[in-house]
Amino acid sequence: MPLGLLALAVSAFAIGTTEFVIVGLIPEMARDLAVSIPTAGLLVSLYALAITLGAPTVTALTGNIPRRALAIGLMVIFTIGNLIAAFAPGYEVLLAGRIVTGVAHGVFFSIGATVATSLVDKSKGARAVSLMFAGLTVAMVVGVPFGAFVGQHLGWRAPFLAVSALGVISVLGLVTLLPKDIRHTAPEGLLSQLKLLGRPRLLAMYLVTTFGFGASFVVFTYLTPLMTEVTGVSETTVSLALVAFGVATFLGNLLGGWTSDTLGTERALTIKITGLIVSLIALPFTAPVPVLMFINLFVWGIFTFAISPIVQSGVVTIAEEEAPNAVGTASGFNIAAFNLGISGASFLGGLIIEKAGVLATPWAAVGSAVIAMVIVFWLHRHKRLNVQQA
Question: Rounded to two decimals, what is the model's pTM?
Answer without folding.
Answer: 0.83
